[in-house]
Amino acid sequence: MKFNFIIKEINKYTAAELVQKYHYSKVFPRLTKVYLGIFLDDKLVGVITFGWGTQPLGTLNHLFNKGLGLTTKDYFEIGKMCAIDELPRNSESQMLSAVIKWLKINHPEKLFLYTLADGIVSKPGYCYQASNFLCGGFFWTDVYIGNDGEKIHPRTARGLCEENAKFCGKEKIFWLTRDFMKTKGITRIRGKMFRYIMPLSKKAQKLLASSPVKWTMEYPKDKDLEWKIQTDDGYIVTKEMPKMNLSAVNINKKNVDSFKRVENEFFG
Question: Of the candidates 3, 36, 97, 118, which lies 20 to 30 Å from 185 by C-alpha distance?
Answer without folding.
Answer: 118
